[in-house]
Amino acid sequence: MLRRAILAMAVGLGAIGLAACGGASQDGAAGGGTPAAKADAGPAPRGDSTLQVALPEDPASLDPATSAAAVERNVLAQMYDNLVDIDADLQPRPGGLTESYEMSEDGKTYTFTLREGITFHNGERFDADAVKAHFDRLEDEELASPYLEDFESLGLEEVEVVDPGTVRFRLSRPSPYFLSLLADPAGGGIPAPEAAARAGRDFGNEPVGSGPFKLESWKRGDAITLVRNDDYWNPEAPSAGKLVFRGFADSNSALSQFLSGQLDIIAQVSPQGVREIEEGGDTVLNQAGISTLRVFFNSTRAPFDDVRVRQAVSAAIGRDTVRRTVMREAAVTAGQPLAPIGIYETIAQEPPARDVERAKELLAEAGLPDGFEFTLLIYADNQEHARAAQLLASQLEEVGIRVRIEPMQLSALLEQISAERDNDYDATLLGGGAGNPDPVPWLYTNFGEHGSSKFGAAKTDAMEQGFQTALSTPDVDARLEALRTVNSEIETEAASQATLWFLSTLTAHQSGVHGVRLSPTGTLDLRGAGK
After folding, report:
1. pTM summary value
2. Which residue ranges in the chain fall short of pLDDT 50?
3. Which of 49, 152, 205, 442 has the maximal Cβ count within 10 Å?
4. 314 touches 2 (CB < 8 A)
5. In whole angstroms, how far apart are CA 339 and each of 222, 289, 293, 492, 505?
6. pLDDT in the model for residue 20
7. Are 159 and 169 in contact (CB under 8 A)?
């Protein structure tokens, strides 16, 4: 039986030069804009080109068992293959390590037939023992993997080696989202077992995978250099001979080097840089994302223990104005907590229009006709959060609600709002997103009855019933209908939070670079890239 561990919350924090669908021009209108291609015409011929790639910051670890940041996924995806991949609708399919998989009739057992002939970068053999070793490693308390509870929350009980080419996952209950956890390069990528065992917690500094590229060198504060894995199972990939990743905390510096030709790819372009890149004839790719920014209410203490007060704040917010002012085209105005991408587009809710009069009515009904004052905690090192908070304060002041903005370091903020501190806060601006390619399990950790996130979120019986249906039934239409209820309960009926925007990924590459692709969740796929 897998042991429980503390879930590390995935928060969308660093430099936001993210991405991009256009939004509507008025509050309450749905996001729109001109869609861009998610990839160019095709992979480049196999060659020895070197691609210089700009990241928004330096990765901290390249261990798939512990990496939690989006920036790390852009490197992990080139070094590790997964058991499962996902398509544009977020639906699973066999990944690079898998020939096929089957689900039992009761939905509680998945049997994987593994691809033969795969070796790790250090020559170790990939087989069912390597898969089991990865999941055994997740249980190491010293490792403190943030993904252990993700798998446990979906009912994973046992990983069984049937034979060298077959591995079986046994679940305590049906879980249609289990496969999506295996599709994430962070948490789902399989490392070389002997190398991981020897390195222990240091494996993130000296990673060994089986993907199309392998680590050549890592100079902290300078560059991560990957070279082509000539023993990769797919002879058509990779195309490039070398990938060099560099972190740029200053997005303007990255843009300047890109425009001068020193960089081939920018993983996350700032909203301000898009026009210059396109005017220069280079390519911008975009992919709608699942990370959000939301006003998260503590429903365990006054005045936010009254649903009418939470609904009043939500009604007083002009979401589209905030999104357009702060993010321009690098985010999509939100109308629900579940990102409207893939199959979830069919249950998207329109962003609610700002309604000042309704907000005042609700406050009067709650016995607060003159408004009230509250403290809004924000992440101190995020400029976009700070700008959004100032706009929110201005909008709420129009209905008599006075906002004190209190910046905090991330670790202190998360401790302050936790159950261990008795949810000692009024409300917070919280960025966040799924730690796996499907956002539903992550949403359940925040709002489900047995979710691991205890931030004082308002919950309802209808919300929980919707979650239980969505997390257990294999029928897609039934899941979507249940999630429609979850969306409405969180955003409107219970007003647990007011979702402001969804970030997307905005990536640029030089016109002479080919084969750059974005996964459905915005992670770079460079196995077919070259120049």
Report:
1. 0.79
2. 1-41, 43-44
3. 442
4. no
5. 35, 7, 11, 16, 13
6. 29
7. yes
Distance CA 327, CA 277 (A): 17
Contact yes or no for 198/63 (Cβ under 8 A): no
C-beta atoms surrounding 140 within 10 Å: 16
Tokens 């919707």 -> residue: 466
Question: What is the rounded distance in angstroms from the CA atom of residue 36 to the CA atom of residue 506?
Answer: 10
Q: What is the pLDDT of residue 38?
A: 44
Question: Per-residue b/e over 220-257, b at no fewer than 16 CB within 10 Å?
Answer: eeebbbbbbbeebbeeebbbbbbbbbbbbeebeebbeb
- The pLDDT score that the predictor gives to residue 147 is 82
Pairing between β-strand 497-509 and β-strand 265-266 as defined by DSSP bridges = antiparallel
The pLDDT tens digits of the residues spanning 255-289 come to 999 999 999 999 988 877 888 898 888 888 887 77
Q: Which residue has the tokens 């077992």?
A: 193
- Would you state the pLDDT for residue 435? 55
Question: How far are the Cα atoms of 289, 443, 455, 493, 517 from residue 446, in angstroms, in the given order?
Answer: 18, 5, 8, 17, 31
Residue whose structure tokens are 């699942």: 290
By CB atoms closer than 10 A (0-12, 13-18, 19+), residue 219 is: exposed
Angle at which helices 356-365 and 307-316 cross, to 10°:
160
Q: In Å, what is the CA distance from 259 to each residue of 65, 266, 269, 513, 518?
A: 36, 11, 12, 14, 21
Q: Please give the Cα distance from 229 to 210 (Å, whole number).
A: 8
**510-523, pLDDT tens digit by residue?**
999 999 998 877 88
